[in-house]
Amino acid sequence: MLNNISRDALAAALADRYPAFNAAWAERTADRLLSTIDDRLEINVREWLEGRPLTDIWVRTSHGRLFSVASLMEIQQNSDFVSALTNLNILLSGNEPLAMTRIFPVIE
Fold first, then answer.
1. Residues 6 or more apart from 54 whose CB is under 8 A from it?
2. From CA 82, how far away is CA 27, in angstroms rounded?
3. Any idea where the domains of the chain sit in the sequence?
């Protein structure tokens, strides 16, 4: 849980950086992130809020692959911080199968 991040600042940044979504989405997403994201990822949230480069916080899978928020954004070839942060958090929580499915979706 990210207790040291301002909900209002996070919601404002989400609304600004995800203009396709409305303010209600930004507020719900801020609440979800603040209540579910592992404290170890707080530095990445702060860096994102401040527009700074993200520190690589590496998480190793059971197969020895290493992932960070920045590496996930690169793999997915987009700047979707929320998805990358959520996926790394899922890995940290121990649900590797779900995280890998979200990182590498099956394309039909």
1. 44, 47, 48, 68, 69, 70
2. 13
3. 7-103
Please state the separation of Cα 63 from the chain's center in Å: 22
Q: Is 57 exposed, middle or buried (0-12, 13-18, 19+ CB in 10 A)?
A: middle
In Å, what is the CA distance from 58 to each residue of 42, 54, 86?
A: 14, 12, 14
Residue 35 has, within 13 A of its CA and on its CB side, a CA count of 6
Residues 75-84: pLDDT tens digits?
Answer: 988 889 999 9
- Over residues 1-36, the pLDDT tens digits come to 777 899 999 999 999 999 999 999 999 999 999 999
